Please model this.
Amino acid sequence: MAESRRLQARPSPADRPVSLLRMVATLYGSRIRSQAAFRASFLMDLLGQVLIVGTEFLELWVILSQVDVLGGMTLPQVAVVYGLGALAFGIADLLFGEIDGLSTAIRSGKLETLMVRPVPMLLQISSLDLSLRRLGRIVVGLAMLATALAIAGFSPTPAHLLLVVLAPLAGAAILGALFTMAGAMQFWLVDGREFANAFTYGGNYVATNPGAVFPLPLRAFFTFVIPATLVAYTPTLALLDLTGPALLPQWTGWLGAPVAILIWIVAALLWRSGVRHYTGAGG
Amino acid sequence: MTTSNDPAIELRALRRDYVVRGRRRTTADAPHETPDDPSRTTATRGPRRDRAALGARIPRGVRGARRAQRIIRAVDDVSLRVDPGEAVGFVGANGAGKSTTIKMMTGILQPTAGHVRVLGRRPVPERRRLSREIGVVFGQRSQLWWDLPLRDSFRILGAMHRLPESARTARLSRLVEGLDLQDFLDRPVRQLSLGQRMRGEVAAALLHSPRLVILDEPTIGLDMISKEGLRRFLREDREERGTTLFLTTHDMSDVERLCERIVVVNSGTVAFDGPLAGFRESLGAPRELIIDLAEPQERLTLPAGVSTLAVEAEGIRHRIAFHGSEMTVPRLLAAVGEQAEIADLSLAEPAIEDLVREIYARGR
Model:
């Protein structure tokens, strides 16, 4: 009784403005529902994605059937890197994958309709163009990660368990920031889709390979400039207690989260200046 | 803070240039180029002097490029003040600068020069805050979710504007009733006819009860019935809530039915700004009186300054042109009545299209 009296003092839920969380949930929820409306095509898309990811891994498998180790790693260990990378990429692709269509939205004028709404454009693009078929990569990545960890002799400590949860999320954040930066570049480039795809799919390639296979200058580039090795490779080193190559000691496996925060600051600044350029230069 | 005393829209000496990067060519070619319309192209030069003309607006990477650049002035010195509650029709030919002006008002484009305030806010830096208080319809682009039932678009937009559930449902039922959306509320937007969709677009723009409604070609492509329904509701909603209405259109009857004030833009500048009623008189365009006589008569003797345009139906129907400043309808009728019995009459106002054309012709 006391509780219901207290509730009466506040406006009833129907009279309260929608919370930020509810708003975000509504945006994503409606997008998911609109895709679920086409169930058959959704399932086909999903299956296609699963096949693509599987085929990509086949490439590594073929290499490892010729040599015993790749970048100092055995097949199960490479599979851990691949699974972790695919999982992180899948999450990033699900949430930010449609940013490469920004130049199309600019040219068609669709961007203008997004600009007259009180919601950040990045959130609108992320939710309104969310494509559920990208779940396929997440499913495959998760399955591969679990299987490969078991085969590779994963002996979890509490710290390892924390890392195995944190690493895909931090990796997704890093890749998502890269996607956003590539997307923001399209405010300057008239037809930037190819350029953006170089980032997205290039990032995926680097993230899902053992970092030690790259020669030192490249390794440095993909760690300090584009931190793709921190997405899956170095977390795998830490998870499986392996010794890393030069530049990438085992403890760098924990760098994902702090680096994700840093790179998001850069990505947000770039996005803002892209929007500013757009309002200045016009379509 | 914004107060209700602020003008709804205030534009002062507003200007907007576009830089058009042409094909690669040598600077020597440039002087020979003759642009289509010299008055619209303010500069055709090599890169360096353009940079000076535009200040820091040209990105650095362009410095070395030997590309011809043309600066198109889309809006040139537009000044306008719209008070809260006014309804303004903003008309002009294609490319006159209407859409560019609207983009500067909604924060989509930054003005090259000049001053713009909408509901007391600077549109570009305060774009998102402003978007909570204005409703915009771009007639040629959709705000709705294509694959979802129309109803869902309102739910999403309600969430975006953080409307309380009760406020959203109350407002929506008013919009559904006023715009007659009930029959297709549950149909996916992609299945709607153009007229149905446009009514949905207007409802989407009005859902958050904006103080200022900006409509860019809201009736384009609609049939007469849809147009009328839309106009009727826009008038009702404005009466109920005292909103400010800013409308661009090609259809002059939109302006006549919705607005009290008309602003004509031509080549990026304001060519006319005043009440719709005075618009015709100030131009001195002739009005037309159509008289049907009871008995046919070949010709009527008319007072000075009044002329017969045509005699039709074998002398029954006479079309007479006169100027409102020189002659009133009763005096004209009295003059005709002395000569013949009048069976019927009607008065045709000059079409605004003709008046706008007249303004354009004078501007030349």
In short: Chain A touches chain B through 36 residues (CB under 8 Å). The longest helix of chain A spans residues 39-66. Residues 39-277 of chain A form one domain.
